[in-house]
Design goal:
elongated; Tetracycline Repressor, domain 2; homodimer; DNA-binding transcription factor activity (chains A, B); about 190 residues; 10 helices; DNA-binding (chains A, B)
Chain lengths: ~190, ~190
């Protein structure tokens, strides 16, 4: 019987190895070695590293969807963009160890780009952020892309020695500046 | 005899394969296959993919250094940050095919992080951008990191269908917003 905790051990090991060696540089054998089990034991749960990668990003995708739905339910483009930005930062800071894989690993990018759930939720997130300061042309979407990618890169482990709370304040502030959002007044912050 | 053009063929093939399969997923054999030569022929010029990666980033590193030195020679923190930002964008747009490797490939990140030239020039670039809006705490450096990473991600090939000139305008504008730089008045733009 495969317990959820048993599966999670494989996912945690995969995240560590993907971040260190990239997806293409990680074999099921290496994941087995990391956990002291055979490659066959890994293969019993996950047929390929692609299947592992998809299982690894599933919770991130679900949290992003929750954030996007909460933002889309608000009224006003500024409130929606603010909710999307702060929610995105919280998802990112909750999965810091995964960021090197999500932001630029070529072995992951192709697979993640073709993941219908992740592509759709990212598109809705970009739409919410771009609408903060709408205008003709692609400026809003380019700013949104820079904010999402830049924050995901800057929050990766080892990138700086700023404490998580302080990092959250500064990356949200940077995102607001880029997108043209004002700092919300105390007491009017959306949850 | 090895001509410069001969070496460049290997570098171009390496860039294509690194971007597609990540550094860890690219073997000297694959580079040989791409060019229709033997692995031994590749190995004759480059002993490892690490050596190839270093040769590939050498011109980027040299151009970033030129930009940083030109910016540091100016007077005034705004003029210096503006010069560093626009110079960085030009370097990035001149090497778009390399961006997936530079921004997040875990196999490249470790090696590039330990490259003394690239680490030093990146540190000076972050210092120039952070000084645009100085203040206590790490906010300036975090904004600079988000600008550099975000632009390098957003300008990667296939990320959007915006024409290069238009893309340049929008990413420079986004960088100025994040850093707190005004759009320079026409005629006063630094070269």
């Amino acid at each position: 019987m495969v317990t959820a905790a048993g599966k999670q051990r494989f996912l945690d090991a995969a995240i560590r190895l993907f971040a260190r060696h990239s997806v293409a540089g990680t074999s099921l054998q290496m994941i087995g070695d990391e956990l002291g089990v055979t490659k066959a034991a890994v293969h019993h749960h996950f047929r390929s590293r692609q299947e592992l990668l998809l299982a690894v990003i599933e919770p991130v995708c679900a949290e992003l969807l929750e954030t996007v739905e909460a933002a889309e339910a608000l009224r006003g483009r500024h409130a929606r963009a603010e909710r999307a930005l702060t929610g995105f930062v919280d998802v990112v800071l909750g999965h810091r160890e995964l960021l090197p894989v999500l932001t630029g690993d070529p072995g992951a990018t192709e697979l993640l780009g073709s993941h219908p759930g992740l592509a759709a939720v990212t598109g809705r997130m970009i739409g919410l952020l771009a609408a903060a300061d709408p205008g003709p042309g692609p400026g809003g979407r380019i700013r949104a892309d820079i904010v999402l990618s830049g924050i995901a890169c800057a929050a990766a482990p080892g990138r700086n020695d700023v404490a998580p709370d302080n990092l959250r304040t500064h990356v949200v502030d940077a995102g607001r500046r880029t997108l043209g959002l004002r700092t919300p007044r105390p007491g009017r912050t959306t949850p």
